[in-house]
Amino acid sequence: MTHTKEHASQPKTKPSDLTDEDLQRLLKLGTATVYEAQGQRGSIASELRPLDPGMKLVGTALTVSTTPGDNLMFHQAVLMARPGDVLVVDAKGFTDAGPWGDVLTLAAQQAGIAGLVIDGSVRDSEAIINAGFPVFSRGISIRGTTKVDPGQIGGTINLAGTVVDHGDVIIGDRDGLVVVKAADVLDSLASAEAREAKEEEYRRRILDEGASTAELLGLIPTLQRYGW
């Protein structure tokens, strides 16, 4: 694996006018709404799940690529991360070792890191949950790791089939994970809020008018063609 010593503190692709308030608005809208609003793009494999269903995260991605079973780059990424970053780690789907645990969690919290997404396993899951640090992983494993192999920080990774660039926005909740490309964040936010407003109108009409979902979505002609 190529060792890339990239100081990734300022992603060039991050919109200069993106604010913490914008990120929190995306998180409140939820992953499903954001995914639909950006044309059903950006979902990350459903096998990556929160350690606890109540965990939520949002932040800009600090991307990490590691050798399976080694956690050297995790320690370097914690040193490099900015407050509000989410560590997004391509651990190659390797689940038979836990390269992240409670000590790294504490260090990450002290650095202001917003969470961890890893295509791999973690350990010390109960301690991580109790610490309130959002982690989305493929699995849990008590087995230890080495600390010897170089990796890449701050580049483009393939996270379980989804391309993630340094500086993209990652959103996670109990429905899953979605990535919003850095250049599209403000447009995606506007589209998601418009979709949420539309769905709120659907809810109002269902409650106040007794409207059906088939009516609201314009499905009556299609159903009639099938004889319903």
Distance between the termini: 58 Å
CATH topology description of the largest domain: Glucose Oxidase, domain 1
> Strand-residue fraction?
25-35%
Q: Approximately how much helix is present in the residues?
A: 25-40%
- Rg over CA atoms, rounded to whole Å, is 20 Å
Task: Write down the overall geometry.
Answer: elongated
SS-derived structural category: alpha/beta
Overall tally of domains = 2
Order of SSEs = HHEEEHEHEHEEEEEEHHH
Total strands: the figure is 11
Concise description?
The protein is an alpha/beta fold and 228 residues long.
Key terms for this structure?
single chain; 228 residues; alpha/beta; Glucose Oxidase, domain 1; 2 domains; 9-stranded mixed β-sheet; two-stranded antiparallel ribbon; 11 strands; 34% helix
Task: Provide structural commentary.
With 228 residues, this protein is of the alpha/beta class. The chain has 2 domains: 20-182, Ribonuclease E inhibitor RraA/RraA-like (Glucose Oxidase, domain 1, 3-Layer(bba) Sandwich), CATH 3.50.30; 191-225, no CATH class. It is built from 8 helices and 11 strands. The protein has helices at 20-29, 31-37, 72-80, 102-110, 125-131, 185-209, 213-216, 220-225; strands at residues 43-44, 49-50, 57-65, 85-94, 115-122, 135-140, 152-153, 156-159, 162-165, 169-173, 176-180. Strands 1, 2, 3, 4, 5, 6, 7, 10 and 11 form a 9-stranded mixed beta sheet that branches. The chain has a two-stranded antiparallel ribbon with strand order 8-9. A hairpin with a 2-residue loop joins strand 8 and strand 9 (162-165). Helix 1 (20-29) packs parallel to helix 6. The chain is elongated and about 65 Å long. The termini are far apart.
